[in-house]
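User: Please check token order:
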Amino acid sequence: MRTTPGVKTFSGYIDIGNNQSMFFWFFEARNNPKHAPLALWLNGGPGCSSLFGALQENGPCRINDDSTASTLNPYSWNTYASMLYIDQPISVGFSYGKRDAFSTDQAAARVWQFLQTFLSIPSFSHYLNDNGITFWSESYGGHYVFSAQNALIKAQKLQGHSIPITSLGINNGWFDPLVQFQSYYDYSQKKYNHVEDIANAATLAVVKTALTHKTGCLAQLKNCANKGNIEACQDAYNFCAQYVSIPLLGDRSTYYFPHNKNDTFPSLSLLKYLDRSDVRRAIGAETNYWACRDDIGEDFWTTADTVRPTISSLGKLLDSGLRTVIWAGDKDFICNSLGVYRSLLAMKWKYSKQFAKAPFKNLTVQGKVGGVYKTIGPLTFINVYNAGHEVPAFQPALSLEIFKQTISRQDIHSTN
């Protein structure tokens, strides 16, 4: 694995009890590691490995297309922070043991256990300094991160290490099914996605009926939110997927809609790389690699976790003053930027009216306009141009600048 000379890297397992071993990969900051913040990265799913983030998004290296070697990533986030990637829940990636997480709250409790043990080890404890820890995620991170933060806040009042959380960032998050399913309809039209019509007029007409009928998608999602019945929530999600999102998307890529669903970017070369026995030995992996596990999604399905909104949790964190960046690649379909932004508009918090009225500004990095943004209080929303679901893979320089400004407690701003 190619990384920066002189920069420490550790990988292996933390035993979190109950015969459960959670795999991690840690990369020390390239610059001033003694004072650099500690950053936790979690990929989404539910059930996808955080090594996607490490090896094809914001980690110190990228895997070559032929899976034989790696190259240095000049835009790695460990330029400014010590990066910690965790494979969770248990059985995802290289983690192994009894599966017992059926919701984001249960998964968050395991993340808390991991961090408590990790930060008690002398080799790692000093990385938690006055700059605290910053949480970053994407996709189902719109569920994971809030539960993980709440678990840390509640638990450290009772026991364990004090873990000051200084900021968070989530790109293309899944926050509010009611808002985001409704946004699929608009986003499928050129006037909203600014590229092309994804669905034709006939499909749009059928989907609109499925959305707005008195027993349709929106009515069922509202019933789920009001009653909280697991079966009703499951039925709502199944209906909305079958009659709204799937017909609108057609044969397009879920994660970068201008492409066909069979096109893959970023490259999946990391899968073959992590299946190599020499690589597994080098990083201390004791099992075969599971990139994404459908059965984890099925576990979460038993509690209808996917259908439950988390946007109110974000509102509470913002009211506490936590510096937060919610950003989205504008070519993603599944957690598209329109749905993410509308989720923020629907959120109740102290500055909701001011946020809605605030104008967008261009965000320029390295002489190029890479998107638009607005900031009110501790919240910044960024719409990133020409990026799919995994924003750092599409726009690495812009992503690094956003990360740098956030963890250094600067307001988001353009640079030359």
The chain has a mean pLDDT of 92.
